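subagent[fold] <- orchestrator: predict structure for attached chain, return tokens only, no commentary.
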Amino acid sequence: MKRISLLVVAALALLSHPMGAQERIGSGAPDQTYRAGWTFTPIVGVSETYDTNVALFSEGHPGTDDYIRTVFPGADLHYVGKHTVVDSGYSGSYLDYNQFSALNRWDQRARVEVRRQESARLSWSAHATAAALPSTDLIDLGGIPYRKNGATTFDGRGGVEYALGEHNTVMSSVNYQVVNFERPEIESDILRGGRIFESMSQWRRKISERAAVGADYSFRRALVTGDVEPFDFHTTEAALDYEISPLWSLQGGAGVVYLQATALTEAHSGPAWRLTIQRARAGTTFHFGYLRTFIPSFGYGGTVVSQDLGGGFRTPLFHARHFYFDSSAVFRNNEPLTGVASTADPLTGVVTQLPLRSLRMTTIVGWEPQQWVRFEAFYSLVQQTSLQVGGYIDRNRVGFQIVTSKPMRMQ
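subagent[fold] -> orchestrator:
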């Protein structure tokens, strides 16, 4: 039985940022600088990818490699006003497999975001994304086994920030997420889906030019499809935001996460930790993060203890702003806490809990000769193991893409 090397994961985690839930691996359209008013930006790109495991089969299933041609149209609509910013867009990818043509399909995502500064003290924002994805390894949530099964996701968020005075600030936000899987009659035991509602309240007090302390409280209610009743989570943390230097900053929190008892499960509590370290200088960015908490499992159902470790690194190459290197990795360890995250041995009938350990990594080398075009070569690695014989999945993708975009001012 193969397992993901923790030493390799720890090294790769120093080179990462969160990965978007999209089949396309590259970094997308060239970055744009927007002026006041409305700007419409059409986007089109093509890529060629070699995939070693297009079906996301576990070990022992050879012959699932293929070449994939991808065309990805898209469009962005951006508005910059005196107090308001609106950012919206659509991106799609049509996947054309050379051998496994039955897998051909669209991968699509849409988004809209509004940010407004009402006054010197009050600001608010709203954000929504929706996606139709061809496989479950593209969903950035824990407790989901990787399968070549389509999924739709929705994420809606809203938040407000208010400065009580020179030293105190309060923030409040709500978030609603939905995950649904295709072929429920086939995958219902391991891909169940569900929905989450979460609210968070935060308070920060500035104690110096560099440091702020505070407290965070979040309530999360999750209903996994097929579960009898929802799970309620309460997380309370003490928080610290600290500017180590003009280049380095740190945000951290430590506290307790509590899972309320239900008719079928006992109450549970445990430590909650989070840490993020960031560095930015002259086009070079680095960040590293760790998170430990309880989350619902939209795969097997129930609740898991989730630990996430990841980071990112991006820098210009050859002392030239037109060439760049961008690498990322995220490792997630999910240990069952409650529910039915288990499997029964067909010979003994003994039920064994199924943890999930997942690694996602991508590396990009790019060239942007003009502001409207990008050329990128990329490599992507996806691994997951349930620590059971035959429960190891390994997927490697390598390829290149060309993306063009041309902003157009709208009067």
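orchestrator: received. Logging for downstream: Confidence is low (pLDDT under 50) at residues 1-23, 340-352. The helical segments are 6-12, 184-187.
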